[in-house]
Amino acid sequence: MDVNTPAVLTGPQKTPLQGIRGWLILPMLGLFYMLYQTIIMMYLDILQVKSAWHLVTNEQSDFYVDGFSNAFYMLQMAQGILIVLLAWNVIAAFKGLKIAKPLFIISMLFYTVMVVVSRFVFPNIFGIEIEYSYIINVVNSCFYCFIWIPYVLMSDRVKQTFIH
Predict the structure, then answer these.
(1) Among 22, 64, 124, 151, which residue's beta carbon has the most beta carbons within 10 A?
(2) What mean pLDDT do residues 7-12 have?
(3) pLDDT-based confidence at 10, cuts 50/70/90?
(4) 95-110 pLDDT, tens per residue?
(5) How far apart are CA 116 and CA 97, in angstroms?
(6) Per-residue confidence (pLDDT) for residue 84, from 0 to 100
(7) pLDDT digit string (tens) for 142-154?
């Protein structure tokens, strides 16, 4: 045995922090949740307005509200953009594209803004009754952003997964 030969330790090797595993699974599940919630939010907004649409958009009606139809179309368009953004984010994340990281942050922030606008600002502007049970949606989305934006910005797994 040669004393000059270095000893090789064969301990357990660390697996590379790459791929959608570990804690990165939770933000990815959150993307699906946000996509589902946005579709439900859009559907519920349409259901809520559907019954009174002819009253608030007809100028001869006593219940006519100026600008309601344009604002509602803008809200629905913004929710549609959010759905496309979330779907694009899911595709980019599973392909490991570098754009997934900023897209994820933008999606989370845009989702939070859309929840506030759809559930509180829009109804308040046009005198629609606000369901305060939606406060939990705002709290959840803010909490989600508070936890996962720093993770996405600082995590080694995120840095090594989205490199293409």
Answers:
(1) 151
(2) 62
(3) low
(4) 888 898 999 999 999 9
(5) 30
(6) 97
(7) 999 999 899 888 8
Q: What is the pTM of this model?
A: 0.82
Distance between CA atoms of 142 and 112, rounded to whole angstroms?
Answer: 7
3-state secondary structure the chain: CCCCCCCCCCCCCCCCCCCCCHHHHHHHHHHHHHHHHHHHHHHHHHHHHHCCHHHHHCCCCCCCCCCHHHHHHHHHHHHHHHHHHHHHHHHHHHHCCCCHHHHHHHHHHHHHHHHHHHHHHHHHHCCCCCCHHHHHHHHHHHHHHHHHHHHHHHCHHHHHHCCC
Give the pLDDT confidence of 63-77 residue by residue, as tens digits.
888 899 999 999 999
Cα–Cα distances (Å) from 80 to 15, 74, 87, 106, in that order, read 40, 10, 11, 15
Closest residue by Cα to residue 72 from 33, 44, 35: 44
Angle between helices 25-50 and 100-116 (to 10 degrees): 30
Which single residue is written with the structure tokens 């589902």?
Answer: 36
Domain boundaries, the chain: 22-161
